[in-house]
Amino acid sequence: MNESLALNKKTKSSVGESGHAEWSVLLDALTEGVMVRHEDSILYSNDTLRSLLAFDGTQEELNTEPIERWVHEADRPLVERHYRKRLAGGGPDNYEFRMVRADGEVRWVDCRASLIEWDGTTAVVGCIYDITDRKLAAQARKKSEHLFHNVFRLTPEVMILSSLRDGHVLDVNPAFLNVFGRRRDDVIGKPMETLGIWADSTFHNRFVEELKMTASMTDVPATVRTRGKLIRHFRLFAQKIEHENEPMLLLIGRDVTDDLLQAQELQRSRDTAELANRAKSEFLANMSHELRTPLNAILGFAEILRDEMVGPIGNPRYSEYARDIHESGTHLLSIINDILDLSKVEAGRLEAYLTWIDPLEALEMCVTLVQQRAFEAGLRLEHQFDESVLLEADERLIKQITLNLLSNAVKFTEPGGNVTVALEKTGTGGVCLSVTDTGIGMTAEEIKIAKRPFGQVDSSLSRRHEGSGLGLPLISAFAEKLNATMTIDSQPGVGTRVSVVFPPFKVKAKEED
C-alpha cells in the first residue's frame, strides 16, 4: 500500500486523466482512510477518511480544514511529534491516537505513516484504520481482569484457579494460603489432587468430571483438611471458564462449619422447646380435667345450698357464702376451660367441624346469655345482624368467639356505656363479625400485650378487672382455625372494636324461600 502511494503527482499526470481517475477510485475503495499531509494542510483524502470523520462536504472542502480540527486535543502533541520525526526519516511506523469526527464523536485510530513526494513536496501519507471497537473491548477486558484480580486477591473466600486439561494449579488467593497453611511456591503448578486438601481423596476427580458436563456447579458440600489437619465443612461454587482458548476451573470455597454447628444447636434448642411446650400443654390438659371433676361437685353443692333446695339453712349468711362459693367456682371453671382450650391450640389438637351454618341463631343466643350481665353493669347492649348470609364455620367456635368478645366488652366498659355486636358484609365479599364498646380502650403497646397468652394490660396487684388473659389469644386461634382474621382497633378512653373477618370463599347468600 505504501509503495503504491510513493507515486508522485507528476507520475500520475503522465498517465493521463483516465489513469488518475482509476487511481482515485482505487484509493476510495480501500477500507482504510488515506490522508496526505504537508505541515497543517491536507493535500489529499479518500472517501473512506471522509466517512470516518463523518464529513459531509467534498474532498476539496475537507482539504481546506486544518489538521488539528480532526485530532483530539490531548493527542495533538503526540501526532505532531511523530509527524516531525517522520519528516526527519524516523519515528514509529504505527501509532494510535484519537480523532474527533464532525459530529463530535471521538474515535480511536491506528495510523501507519510514511514519506511521499507530492507535487515536488515532501509530505507524509497516513493510512488510518478505525480501531475504536477493538480499543473499547481491550479496555473493558483490562478493567474486567483488574476487577477479577482485586476480587481474587481480597475476597475472604478460598479461590483456586486450575487447568481443566491437566488439573494443575494456576493460581490461588491469599485466603487459600491462610486457611490451608501453605506457601504459594508449594501450590502453584502442582496437580490439585496431590495437595491433600480433600478429606475424600476421590472427591476432586468426581467433581471435575461432573463440571465438564454442566459448566458450573453451586453450593456443593465438601469436607476438607485445613491448617493443622483440622476437618472443616465447605460449600463449593465452581465455574468453567476459558482464557486464550485454555479451559480453566475457577473454584470458590466458603467455610460453613460454624454455620452448620449453629444450625444444629438451633435445631436441638427448637426440639427441646417443642418437647417442653408439648409437655406443658399435656400437663395443662390433664390438670384441667382433674380440676373440673371436683369443681363441678363444688358448684353443684354450692348451688343446692344457695337455693336451699333441700330446706332452709337457717342463717342467711350461709346463703351469702354459698353464693360467693358458686360465683368463685364458676369463674375458676371459666379459667380452666380457657386453659384447656389454649392447651389444645398449642398441642395442635383444636378441631373445627366446618359446615354451612346460619350464624344468626348462635349470635342471638350469645346476646341472650350476656344480656343480663350487661344490664347489671348498666350497659346498653345492641346488635346489628345481616340476615342474608351463610358461613362455612364451626358453630361451637362461632359461639366461643362471640361470647369471649362480648364478655370482654362488658367487663371493660364503664356503666352508661354501649356494647354493639354486628355481622356485616365487607366490600370484598367477605363477612365481618365485630364487637364494639365504649370502654377503657388500649394503646398499641397494650394491644400487643393483650394478644399474648396470659397477657394482661392491667397487671397491678389490685386489678380492677378479673381475667386470665386468654380471651384475645383464644379468639385469634379460633379465627385462624376458621380461616378468618382477627384485628383490633382501640383508643384509650374511647373504646375498642375487635373484628373477625371471614374471606369471600367462606361466605354465601341464603337461598330465598
Structural notes for this entry:
- The chain is an alpha+beta fold and 513 residues long.
- The chain folds into four domains: 4-132, 2-Layer Sandwich (Beta-Lactamase); 155-255, PAS domain (Beta-Lactamase, 2-Layer Sandwich); 270-347, Helix Hairpins (Orthogonal Bundle); 355-459 and 466-509, 2-Layer Sandwich (Heat Shock Protein 90), CATH 3.30.565.10.
- The chain is built from 14 helices and 18 strands.
- It has helices spanning 9-14, 16-28, 47-52, 59-63, 76-87, 132-154, 174-180, 203-214, 257-307, 316-347, 359-376, 395-411, 444-450, 471-481, and strands spanning 33-38, 41-45, 94-100, 106-118, 121-130, 158-163, 169-172, 216-225, 231-243, 246-255, 355-357, 380-385, 389-393, 418-425, 431-437, 485-491, 495-502, 507-509.
- A five-stranded antiparallel β-sheet has the order 2-1-5-4-3. Strands 7-6-10-9-8 form a five-stranded antiparallel β-sheet, sandwiched between helices. Strands 12-14-15-17-16 form a five-stranded mixed β-sheet.
Descriptive key words:
about 525 residues; alpha+beta; Beta-Lactamase; Helix Hairpins; 4 domains; 5-stranded antiparallel β-sheet; 18 strands
CATH topology of the largest domain: Heat Shock Protein 90
In CATH's first tier, which class of the largest domain applies? Alpha Beta
Give, in spatial order, the strands making up the sheet with the most strands. Answer: 2-1-5-4-3
Give me the oligomer status: single chain
- Helix/sheet category: alpha+beta
Tell me the span between the first and last alpha carbons: 103 Å
Mean pLDDT: 80
Strand content: 25-35%
